[in-house]
Design a protein that fits this description.
alpha/beta; 5-stranded mixed β-sheet; 3-stranded parallel β-sheet; rod-shaped
Length: 407
């Protein structure tokens, strides 16, 4: 381009020189050609400075491609301990479980370099993904409509739901411990204390009224007499009196005491029946409709907590599911409501013989891999997830972690 412009300019100068050469005075050449040449050169230099693109050859551009996962990418994978999906070994240096094995298969297929980052609960895990502290999250994360407004989810990786776990009704030897628990309950101890006070009071009244009677049933001496009077007062209170006072005052007191005994027996029976009924009800949780009136525990921020609150069932929320197990075994809670596969795994392993999962699944839900909105990894993960289900890898992982104890 520059060479062509210079050639055209040179032709113009030569033509102009021929026009102006035959001039001036006494054979002297004119200065006009030189002035024209200088002006032309100045204009050319100025034009090139103002438009440097004319001297450059344009370089073709290529469109920006969509980011793809490569072996050099360092991904942060958020997770949380939730057996059997994510399990930590004794020194917490290595993770295993269904979700861990599944992600390792996905990452191997795509060719990802990743690092697990552990969080205490699902709320913290989701916050990490939302705030960009993690590229992806996997554990036992339920796919809900509310969460889909804030995150992208993979195709469902597991089908589960909510279920109820209670203490084993056979744990501890049947009904005998319940009887001992009944007699040592606070309400019945109060009844027994009241009975002792009444017996001592009635025994002294009878002893005072009968000690001077010649044919009285009570000895005149205090020490042997008060014991006989206490025995009579206790037997009469239980409506089992075998002897009656001989004096008029003593018989009047005995009649009143018999009525008190009838009322006391009725009150004692009602208290015992109420305590036994409460114990029976506590061991009779079989569905969601049985939960009201009981202490229910689950993890904070879980779909189980949301479900219970929507139905106005009081619930205690804890940070980790292990705390819920502890509350149930220590009788601080009557039931645990949580994800069915998690409860079944605990009941078949660490909690075997201590707890039992009751009823059927009452809220079906799917688990998925959570990602930030518009994540470039979503399509790749979905593609590999479908491939693992088709080639049998997914089924092998499922059998490994969920077919250990079919009972």
């Amino acid at each position: 381009m520059l060479i062509a412009i210079a050639r055209i300019f040179r032709l113009c100068i030569n033509s102009f020189r021929r026009l102006v050469t035959p001039t001036t005075h006494k054979g002297r050449r004119s200065l006009i050609p030189h002035i024209s040449l200088g002006l032309g050169s100045f204009i050319l230099v100025l034009f090139l400075v103002l438009h440097p693109g004319l001297t450059q050859t344009p370089t073709p551009t290529t469109p920006t491609s969509t980011p793809t996962a490569t072996a050099t990418d360092k991904m942060l994978v958020a997770t949380r301990i939730i057996p059997p999906f994510v399990i930590a070994d004794k020194d917490k240096s290595k993770l295993s479980g269904f979700s861990i094995d599944l992600w390792q298969s996905i990452a191997k297929e795509i060719g990802l370099n990743y690092q697990f980052v552990e969080y205490p609960n699902v709320a913290n895990l989701l916050s990490a993904v939302k705030d960009g502290k993690a590229n992806v999250g996997i554990a036992a994360i339920s796919i809900t409509a509310e969460r889909q407004q804030q995150f992208d989810f993979s195709l469902p990786m597991f089908a589960g739901g909510l279920q109820i776990m209670v203490r084993n009704s056979d744990n501890g030897g049947g009904g005998v411990p319940n009887i001992f628990q009944l007699f040592f309950s606070a309400s019945l101890l109060q009844v027994i204390a009241l009975a002792l006070v009444l017996i001592i009071f009635a025994a002294h009244v009878i002893w005072l009224s009968e000690r001077n009677h010649d044919e009285g049933m009570i000895s005149k001496s205090y020490i042997p007499g008060i014991f006989k009077a206490s025995w009579w007062a206790a037997a009469t209170l239980a409506t089992q009196a075998d002897e009656m006072p001989k004096g008029a005052i003593g018989r009047f007191i005995a009649i009143i005491w018999m009525f008190i005994g009838v009322l006391f027996v009725a009150y004692f029976t009602a208290s015992a029946t109420t305590s036994l009924t409460v114990q029976q009800l506590q061991g009779d949780i079989r569905s969601v409709s049985d939960l009201p009136g009981h202490t229910v525990v689950t993890t904070a921020g879980s779909t189980a907590a949301t479900y219970l609150k929507e139905r106005r069932i009081p619930v205690q929320e804890v940070g980790k599911i292990e705390q819920a197990y502890e509350a149930l075994l220590s009788k601080k809670a009557d039931a645990v409501v949580f994800d069915s596969p998690v409860l079944l795994f605990y009941a078949a392993n660490e909690g075997k013989g201590k707890v039992e999962v009751v009823g059927s699944i009452f809220r079906e839900e799917n688990y998925g891999i959570v990602l930030p909105n518009d994540s470039p990894y979503r399509k790749q993960i979905n593609r590999v997830l479908l491939s693992l289900k088709e080639n049998g890898t997914y089924q092998a992982l499922y059998d490994k972690w969920f077919e250990v104890d079919k009972s």
